[in-house]
Write a structure and sequence with these properties.
By secondary structure, the protein is mostly helical. The chain has helices at about 20-35, 40-45, 50-60, 60-75, 90-105, 110-120, 125-150, 160-180, 190-205. Helices cover about 65% and strands about 0% of the residues. Helix 1 crosses helix 4 and helix 5 (about 90-105) packs across helix 9 (about 190-205). The termini are far apart.
């Protein structure tokens, strides 16, 4: 059973910058350790404040976590920007641009916190809300972009939804497995791996060559 939070002292004015400072420290801790392995004492020490002050701002560890998550989710780039690329460039070059943006997204602190949250013991409604507000829009954006490229003959798609998921999985590669099993932060993906992922995807989705009459 979680102990009752200490009662905040009254009469003190809250410094305007302190709430933001606590939130940023909490984001770093939650992204690196997840919810269960973070102690409020650690956050208070790093933020150079007290647990009493943290509870005065946020009420509980759960509410602080939600505030930290909501704030980071608000910093994620719009899903549509993931697939913006020069329409005149060859498709492999466009695919490489999108792959690098996916790398930046997956390597961000925001997605580290999303990943740890989805892997933790959270309620089904919370899991569904996070999935629909973060992961799904990006997956949809890649799906729609690939469908548009396929309609122009740049690639062949049998199952666009599976191809969109496969593209992300190829980019994430061993980093995702290491992060999942080891509990470490995702980190940036090596450029060589991204090139290989793009080449594998292109090989698997190469458009059919026109048959020439013999």
């Amino acid at each position: 059973m979680q102990p009752n939070p200490p009662k905040p002292s009254r009469g003190r004015k809250k410094p305007p910058h302190l709430e933001r400072q606590i939130l940023q420290v909490a984001q770093l801790f939650f992204a690196k350790r997840g919810f269960d392995d973070v102690a409020m004492d650690d956050i208070a020490r790093e933020a150079n404040t007290s647990k009493t002050t943290i509870y005065a701002y946020f009420g509980s560890k759960q509410k602080l976590f939600k505030a930290a998550l909501d704030d980071l989710l608000g910093q994620l780039p719009p899903a549509a920007t993931l697939t913006e690329s020069g329409a005149e460039a060859p498709f492999p070059e466009q695919l490489m641009v999108v792959a690098n943006r996916i790398d930046q997204l997956l390597s961000s602190m925001s997605f580290d916190l999303v990943r740890r949250t989805l892997a933790s013991d959270i309620t089904a409604p919370m899991r569904d809300r996070i999935w629909k507000s973060t992961v799904l829009p990006y997956l949809d954006a890649i799906h729609d972009w690939l469908v548009a490229q396929a309609s122009g003959g740049a690639l062949k798609l049998k199952d666009p939804r599976s191809s969109a998921s496969l593209f992300i999985a190829l980019i994430a590669g061993g980093k995702a497995l290491h992060s999942q099993l080891g509990g470490s932060s995702f980190g940036f993906i090596e450029e060589d791996h991204i090139h290989q992922a793009v080449e594998l995807f292109l090989d698997a989705h190469a458009p059919a060559r026109p048959q020439h009459a013999g």
